[in-house]
Amino acid sequence: MILEAESSIQTIMEKLQSYKTRVALNFEYQLGDFQLRVGKVVPIHSENLWGIVIEMECLLISSWEKSHQIMGEFFDIWHEALGKRSLPGHLVHIEPIFSDFGLSDQYTSQHTAVRYASIMAQMIATAQSAQAVRN
Potential cystine with 118: which of 33, 69, 74, 96 (Cβ 3.0-4.6 Å)? Predict the structure, then answer.
């Protein structure tokens, strides 16, 4: 089930004490036909960074199939650029199979929700495996 909420939902959740505001690195940048969103992921009860999420949207293309090649090339460029630096961690390209969720080729907010859920599942699995190795 996917629920869309207005930006006021954060204020409501804070008043209900169901959500804790955290300082986060979030920004959106638009360059021509592309929009880039970046944010960091930090668990609620921790200050440890789990990861950084980079989302790119091609504003002219709403078809997942048609945008797939452009997105793949974008990922390859980032992977190559980051590979030249000695940074901790690694870049992971997550592509859910939207048809498994009954979603069509035309990209919607439901696709975005599935993508975010897949990203979080990947980060949780990675954090748990890292914890198991430490123990």
Answer: 96
